[in-house]
Design goal:
Elements (H helix, E strand, L loop, with lengths): L5 E2 L13 E3 L4 E4 L13 E3 L4 E4 L13 E2 L6 E4 L13 E3 L4 E2 L15 E3 L22 E3 L17
Parallel strand pairs: 1-3, 2-4, 3-5, 5-7, 6-8, 7-9, 8-10, 10-11
Subcellular location: Membrane
Main location: membrane
Protein name: Leucine-rich repeat-containing N-terminal plant-type domain-containing protein
Length: 162
């Protein structure tokens, strides 16, 4: 963390199956996130904020069933739509992907994340999309932050969030 490591994240990291934490914050990493990261069965925390990561989030991340913290993925250039497959992560507590170039719709499937506490997607480009009404089913959600995302439409009834 907080070094001057440069280049891309090597695909070979995906073969370190005992890996539980991958903390690469504050470096000069570039390029896309390797698909192989999605095949780390024990990975429960990924932090890559303050880099120059680009490209979409790999759909293989749906395989990370031990993942609790997709936190600190902010301040990169991650683009494209958030894969709805991420809703298949039963242990996910935190999803923070703010200050990137994400676009498309907010996945309504996120309401299927049984343990999600924090959803923070500030400063992305969800141009014209609305907040899904299904988000009212996120009973354990403590923080929903969608600032500066070009959202439109009404705020759904979120009164079921405890």
């Amino acid at each position: 963390m907080w070094n001057n490591i440069s280049g891309s994240i090597p695909r070979e990291i995906g073969s370190i199956t005992p890996l539980k934490l991958l903390l690469l914050n504050g470096n000069k990493l570039t390029g896309p996130l390797p698909e192989e990261l999605g095949y780390l069965p024990n990975l429960n925390r990924l932090q890559i904020d303050e880099n120059q990561i680009s490209g979409p989030l790999p759909t293989s991340f749906a395989n990370l069933t031990s993942m609790k913290h997709f936190s600190h993925m902010n301040n990169n250039s991650i683009s494209g739509q958030i894969p709805p497959e991420l809703s298949k992560l039963p242990n996910l507590l935190h999803l923070l992907i703010d200050n990137n170039n994400l676009s498309g719709n907010l996945p309504p499937e996120f309401s299927e994340l049984p343990n999600l506490r924090i959803l923070q997607l500030d400063n992305n480009n969800f141009n014209g999309t609305t907040i899904p009404a299904s988000y009212s089913n996120m009973s354990k959600l403590l923080k929903l932050s969608l600032r500066n995302c070009s959202l439109q439409g009404p705020i759904p009834d979120l009164s079921r969030i405890s």
